[in-house]
Specification:
With 232 residues, this protein is α+β, with helices and mostly antiparallel strands. It has nine helices and four strands, in the order E-H-E-E-E-H-H-H-H-H-H-H-H. The chain has two domains: 73 residues, Glutaredoxin (3-Layer(aba) Sandwich); 147 residues, Up-down Bundle (Glutathione S-transferase Yfyf (Class Pi), Chain A, domain 2), CATH 1.20.1050.10. Helix 1 links the parallel strand 1 and strand 2. Helix 6 packs parallel to helix 8 and helix 7 packs across helix 9. It is globular and about 50 Å long.
């Protein structure tokens, strides 16, 4: 059986990571049996990141590369019938979700004082003292460095949220009145979008990105439809 190594649950979500949630959602969409192995310290993972999977003695890293491996080994019921144009579209959408929108979410969670207030207690509240004081500072500094390295973290907060809002607006237009991003049936890009959207929408507090999702009209029902279908 596939062993999925991912972060612990948080709020109403099965895992504290958008990329872990993307991969778990893909596994549920294609109906592959898996076992969750909860990891608290990503430094022990290959490449120091989660998720990763173990399957038939192999260890696979990176959510996108893992999905490619799963398609090659177990078949591709979600994307197998996509046209070349749809595959290209899916790749562009993935870059928008994971290389742009994701970083605006990271900024709110880890840097914005309001987001950090919720993040720190939910992600580190279980740690014993003094780790509960020391570890959040270390991890937050590391995330700040990643955000600055990406470039998003160097911008004014208003611009960070405006760029994230532009991404959400573009994804809303792409979705339109369709059930899924590419049409009437789900594809792997829906797992990628759900991974980020769920972390914006379902935690029990407001944010600039959550307010934007709710204002657009179709992304909220879309995320709820996926949650009800695959996380009943």
């Amino acid at each position: 059986m596939i062993r999925l190594h991912q972060f612990y649950p948080v709020w109403s979500l099965t895992t504290a990571s958008s990329f872990c949630l993307k991969l778990e959602t893909y596994l549920r969409m294609v109906g592959l049996a898996y076992e969750v192995v909860v990891e608290e310290d990503p430094r022990k993972a290959p490449l120091g990141k989660l998720p990763y999977v173990e399957d038939d003695g192999q260890t696979l890293v990176d959510s996108g590369l893992i999905i490619d491996y799963l398609k090659a080994k177990y078949g591709d019921p979600l994307d197998g019938e996509l046209s070349d144009a749809q595959r290209a579209q899916s790749l562009v959408l993935q870059r928008t979700i994971e290389e742009s929108l994701y970083w605006s979410l990271m900024y709110f969670r880890w840097i914005d004082p309001e987001g950090w207030r919720h993040q720190e207690s939910a992600y580190f509240g279980f740690l014993p003292w003094p780790l509960r004081v020391l570890v959040p500072k270390i991890v937050r500094a590391s995330v700040r460095k990643e955000l600055n390295g990406h470039g998003r973290g160097r911008l004014h907060p208003d611009d960070i949220y405006r760029l994230g809002g532009d991404d959400l607006a573009a994804l809303s237009v792409q979705l339109g009145d369709k059930p899924y991003l590419l049409g009437d049936t789900s594809s792997s890009i829906d797992a990628a979008l759900y991974g980020v959207l769920a972390h914006i929408l379902f935690p029990p507090f407001d944010s600039p990105l959550k307010n934007k999702v709710l204002s657009l009209g179709n992304l909220g029902p879309y995320a709820e439809r996926i949650r009800q279908s695959y996380y009943p």
